[in-house]
Amino acid sequence: MSASNENKGHRQRLREKFLISGLDGFHDYEIIELLLTLGTPRTDCKQPAKDALKKFGSLKAVLEAHIEDLKEIKGIGDKNVFGLKIAQAVSRRYLADRIVDKDFIHSADEVMEYLKHNLRDKNKEIFLVIYLNGRNQILKMEELFEGTLTTSAVYPREVIKGALANNAAALVFVHNHPSGNSNPSQDDIALTKQLKTAAEAIDIYIHDHLIIANNDVYSFADHGLI
Known about the structure:
About 50% of the residues lie in helices and about 15% in strands.
């Protein structure tokens, strides 16, 4: 059997294995390999998959790695890096869609899962607002501001504008700390007070301000800061 036919047979077996039993029984490198073949279906992606796993250390780290870092691995280029990034983007969209219309408080675990998945690998600060209705159901989640590694320019008028546009009765603020330290800075505390004052002036309640740092979550409400 030629190398081309052997590769084709191997890829087909991986796909059939997935369709029959999902990812059960798959090694992490096989999952990466399967995703890489989405962009280059005729190329042998087993070794690049193994090299990616070796370099980054885990399936999660490979999926969250930056494109340029992935492309440093021999056999991973513009075409097959697509498969890795589309998988991550689809999972984020799925997690976001899954929690819309759910009660924020009773679905806290699902909300945290989405927030950590969406924000923990960002290398810039992202400020996100969760809009809630009068029953604390999630109406929408929206990224409003993007800052540098250390700060994010957040304008209260834009936050209030978004709340009014979405007919929100309550808000939850979320931002990430790329440094990995979830503790709030003095700027974070001052901003939260400013946003709370602006929201309460038009009878919008602030439930919490969450800081995501890797897998850690800091809650202003839990610490009596809101």
